[in-house]
Amino acid sequence: MTITITLLGTGSPIPDPNRAGPSTLISAGGEHLLVDAGRGVLMRLAAAGVGAPQLSAVLLTHLHSDHITDLNDIITTRWVMTLEPTPLTVVGPVGTKSVVDHLLASLAPDIAYRTAHHGDLNHEPPVEVIEVTDGQVALDTAMSVSCAPTDHRPVEPSVGYRIEHGGASVVLAGDTVPCDGLDGLTAGADALVHTVIRKDIIAALPMQRIRDTLDYHSSPSEAGATATRAGVRTLVLTHYVPPLQPGTEEEWRGIAAEEFAGRIELGPDLHRIEIQPRSTQAD
Ligand SMILES: [Zn+2]
Prior knowledge:
Layout: E1 3-9, E2 23-28, E3 31-35, H1 41-47, E4 55-59, H2 65-68, H3 71-81, E5 88-93, H4 96-106, H5 108-117, E6 127-132, E7 135-137, E8 144-149, E9 159-165, E10 168-172, H6 180-186, E11 191-197, H7 199-202, H8 208-211, H9 220-230, E12 234-241, H10 249-257, E13 263-265, E14 271-275
Parallel strand pairs: 3-4, 4-5, 5-6, 10-11, 11-12, 12-13
Antiparallel strand pairs: 1-2, 1-14, 2-3, 7-8, 8-9, 9-10
Helix pairs in contact: 6-9, 9-10
Zinc ion is lined by residues 62, 64, 152, 155, 175.
C-alpha cells in the first residue's frame, strides 16, 4: 500500500507566477485528502487529475489567509459540479466553523443566482465542519486521520495531521515551530511534510514585517531536527519563503541535511512523492 503526496502549492503569501499557495494532496486507495487550500489550489488539483467532487475531506492546519484563500472555490466548484447534494467535509481547528459560515454568507448572491437559474440545483452548498484539537478525526474514508496541536503562536489554535493507510503514515505539520505536539504526532511516521522559511535569508532583510515571521516558522534545519527526533524516513519541504529559485534546491536540501540524514524531498508545484510502509522499505 502506498500513500502519494502531491505538493499542489509550494508557495507562500508572496505572490509567485510559478508557485500556488500552500496546499498538499494526500492520496491512497483511490481516495484523496486535501490539506490546506491556498491560492490556485483547484488549478493544481486539475493538473493532478483530481476534481473538487473527488475530495474525501479538506483538512486545514490553521486559518492564516494563505492556507484557506481558495476554500470558497472548492465549496462552490464542488457544489456546481455534483448532481446530488454531496457534502464537503472541512476539518480544522476551533474557529473553522465561523470562517466557513462567513464564506457561505459571502457566497449568498452566487448561491441565489445559480439556484434560481438551474432547475436541478435546488440546494445550497452542503458543508460539514469538524473542529478538532487533538486525537482521532472521525471521517468516512479508508485513510485514518489524527491530529495534534502545533505551535504557530500568535496564530492559535493550529494543528498538524497524521494520515495512515495500509501501514504507511504521513504527517503534515503545517506552519509551526518545533514543539511537543508535533513531535508526538510524528513519532514513528514514515514521512513528514513541513513548511519552512529560510531564516538565514529572512533575518537579513531590512523589513520588520517580514522579519516578524521568523518566530513562528521552522527553518529547514529545524524541520530536519523534528524529522530526526521522530525517526521518519522522508522529510518533504514545502511553503518556501523566500520562493525557492530553480537551481538552489541543493542549498535548501543541505540546510535540512545538517539535522536529518534521511531522504529529503522538495521541488516545484506538482512534485509527487510515494511513501511505502516501513515494513516494505529496504533498509
Ligand atoms: Zn501560517
